[in-house]
Write a structure and sequence with these properties.
GO terms for molecular function: hydroxymethylglutaryl-CoA lyase activity; metal ion binding. Its EC number is 4.1.3.4. This is hydroxymethylglutaryl-CoA lyase. Pathway: Metabolic intermediate metabolism; (S)-3-hydroxy-3-methylglutaryl-CoA degradation; acetoacetate from (S)-3-hydroxy-3-methylglutaryl-CoA: step 1/1. This protein has 315 residues and is α/β, with parallel strands linked by helices. 45% of the residues lie in helices and 12% in strands. The protein has a 9-stranded parallel sheet, sandwiched between helices. The longest helix is centred in the middle third of the chain and has 17 residues. About 8% of the residues have low confidence. The structure holds 3-hydroxy-3-methylglutaryl-coenzyme A and magnesium ion. 3-hydroxy-3-methylglutaryl-coenzyme A binds next to helix 1, helix 4, helix 5 and strand 6.
Length: 315
């Protein structure tokens, strides 16, 4: 059966903002994190300690984590791509981190400039250093689950950019292998990222079957983007398969600057609305969450990517 409680991992302040071209002031990021935490979200990914040349928007990671690190009602993990990022994160006061490995060679190269194997070796160093300091590590296993199935010429376009040109479609076993490697090196939770949001229940289910044979289901999370409007369906089938941790982003913000065509994450408001409808507890105050979404959308000068938020603002 589906879980009674779902833990939401809010990624708006990191995944949501990393793709924004206009610099968001540090103070706005900090207020967003405060608002998300006070809406009851228990895990709020705060920022990334990646190269500022690669992701200029998050160049203020030290200041962001520095001013929220003492919020004790939520966990505030930060993304790190290597030991250098790990050391900077710890020095700035981060108490939890996340590493991110791709199941596609091409995407690994374009996102973190190394092979899958090299990335896993780097992350072994990171998890080793983190274990010494008792710092929990979350691992992302990134995939493009499949090619989009409808528009054939676009299909080829996407597959060249994100699917591996050598391997084509990323088979579920590759995602399972990366997830297992992350689990074996000590990651306490593995988030399965459909980075460009092309998965459907038809591809998500076999991927989850493969991953669940390699990593215990309690350790798994799902991370969907809504590029093709499939994210809530994908979440629902994941819940039915026993997953109880879901990543989402306030107002549906997000996208990866190194994954062309990636659009926003599934909106946290929409996830909470669906979970409430299913009678699943989240501990999130939807009213406060909607206000946090309004706050950041007003700042970005753009309508919310959450259908629930748009609908609520009309009633
Ligand atoms: P590189 O150019 O190969 O790095 O980048 P390098 O080791 O050759 O170093 C180059 C320069 O970067 C040096 O500085 C380093 O010191 C510096 P310079 O000597 O030129 O002045 N550097 C760093 N600076 C700050 N923090 C660091 C760091 N490391 C090196 N940690 C690197 C390799 C991994 C650094 C780069 O490719 C990078 O930062 N990539 C991050 C890309 C990124 O953030 N992508 C988005 C996150 S993943 C995602 O969004 C998907 C997810 O949401 C799930 C989903 O949606 O499915 C998680
Ligand atoms: Mg993402």
């Amino acid at each position: 059966g589906i879980p009674k409680y779902v833990k939401i991992v809010e990624v708006g302040a990191r995944d949501g903002l990393q793709n924004e071209n206009n610099m968001v002031p540090t103070s706005v990021k900090i207020e967003l994190i405060h608002r998300l935490v006070s809406a009851g979200l228990s895990v709020v990914e705060a920022t990334s300690f990646v190269s500022p040349k690669w992701v200029p928007q998050l160049a203020d990671a030290r200041d962001v984590i520095g001013s929220v690190k003492n919020l004790d009602t939520a966990r505030l993990p930060v993304l790190v791509p290597n030991l250098k990022g790990f050391e900077a994160a710890v020095a700035a006061g981060a108490k939890e981190i996340a590493v991110f490995a791709s199941a596609s060679e091409a995407f690994s190269k374009s996102n973190i400039n190394c092979t899958i194997k090299e990335s896993l070796a780097r992350y072994r160093d990171v998890t080793h250093a983190a274990a010494k300091l008792n710092i929990p590590v979350r691992g992302y296993a990134l995939s493009s689950l499949d090619k989009p199935i409808i528009v054939m010429h676009r299909l080829l376009y996407v597959s060249c950019v994100i699917g591996c040109p050598v391997e084509g479609i990323i088979p579920p076993s590759k995602v399972a292998n990366v997830a297992k490697e992350l689990h074996d090196m000590g990651c306490c939770e593995i988030s399965l990222g459909d980075t460009i949001g092309i998965g459907t229940p038809g591809t998500v289910i076999p991927m989850l079957v493969a991953v669940m044979s390699a990593v215990p289901v309690e350790k798994l999370a799902v991370h969907f983007h809504d590029t093709y409007g499939q994210s809530l369906s994908n979440i629902l089938v994941s819940l039915q398969m026993g997953i109880s941790t879901v990543d989402s982003s306030v107002a549906g913000l997000g996208g990866c600057p190194y994954a062309k065509g990636a659009s926003g994450n599934v909106a946290t408001e929409d996830v909470v609305y669906m979970l409430e409808g299913l009678g699943i507890k989240t501990n999130v105050d939807l009213e406060k969450l909607l206000e946090a979404g309004e706050f950041i959308c007003k700042h970005l000068g753009r309508p919310s990517g959450s259908k629930a938020a748009v609908a609520f603002s009309r009633v």
